[in-house]
Specification:
Bound molecules: uracil
Distance between the termini: 40 Å
CATH topology: Rossmann fold
Largest sheet: 9 strands, mixed
Strand content: 25-35%
Number of helices: 6
Number of strands: 13
Structural class: alpha/beta
Number of domains: 1
CATH architecture: 3-Layer(aba) Sandwich
Length: about 210
């Protein structure tokens, strides 16, 4: 299976992305924008979830309706910036279980270091939505995918806000079965591993740290 990348070119997404990138956007608004963008990207990322027809009674008559029928969902934010995307997914899929994957990027080597993993016991039976706002080198995201697959997951979708071409290539190489939904594929990575034009450090901007 080849890696599907969907860059969501919807005016609402692109409008909010512009505000998100803006260096003058304050923390509170940044957090709100991450939430709103994640809602919109989740809508796209879940469009192929299996569903089935069933019958309901409206106040007027019986009619056909549809409900999600396939695997249940596990939503797995990559710490720490992925946590900023979690509430949005849970507001759309309140029954989802949550797994956390703690990875940080060694600033020298840019290699991922795993320091915390807590996944739902039945993650193997769930569709996994992995949350990572910035797909940069792809090193830590690829490692997170490896972690959920090692726990048995066979269906993994990645929701990111911004990706670098290098990160997409990395996921494509290591995990060609993983689909990616993103608001923008940006130009490149700079020498420090930041996505350009990007938005800076997503964790710092979400949590007001530096
Ligand atoms: N992580 C971030 O938060 N921003 C980038 O540009 C790259 C990685």
């Amino acid at each position: 299976m080849s890696c599907v990348v969907v860059e969501v070119d919807h005016p609402l997404v692109q409008h909010k992305l512009g505000l998100l990138r803006d260096v003058t956007t304050p923390t509170q608004q940044f957090r709100q924008l991450v939430n709103e963008l994640t809602l919109l990207l989740t809508y796209e990322a879940t469009k192929d979830l299996a569903d089935e027809e069933f019958e309901i009674e409206t106040p007027l008559e019986r009619t056909a309706a549809r409900r999600i029928s396939g695997k249940k969902v596990a939503v797995c934010p990559i710490l720490r910036a992925g946590v900023g995307m979690l509430d949005a997914v849970l507001s759309l899929i309140p029954g989802a279980r949550v797994g956390f994957i703690g990875l940080y990027r060694d600033e020298e080597t840019l290699e991922p270091v795993e320091y915390f993993v807590k996944l739902p016991n039945d993650v193997a039976d769930r569709d996994v939505l992995l949350l990572d706002p910035m797909l940069a080198t792809g090193n830590s995201t690829a490692a997170a995918v490896t972690t959920v697959k090692a726990a048995g997951a066979t269906s993994v979708r990645l929701i990111a806000l911004i990706a670098a071409p290098e990160g997409i290539a990395r996921i494509h190489r290591d995990h060609p079965d993983v689909s990616i939904v993103v608001a923008s594929v940006d130009r490149a990575l700079n020498e420090k591993g930041y996505i350009v034009p990007g938005l800076g450090d997503a964790g710092d901007r979400l949590y007001g740290t530096k």
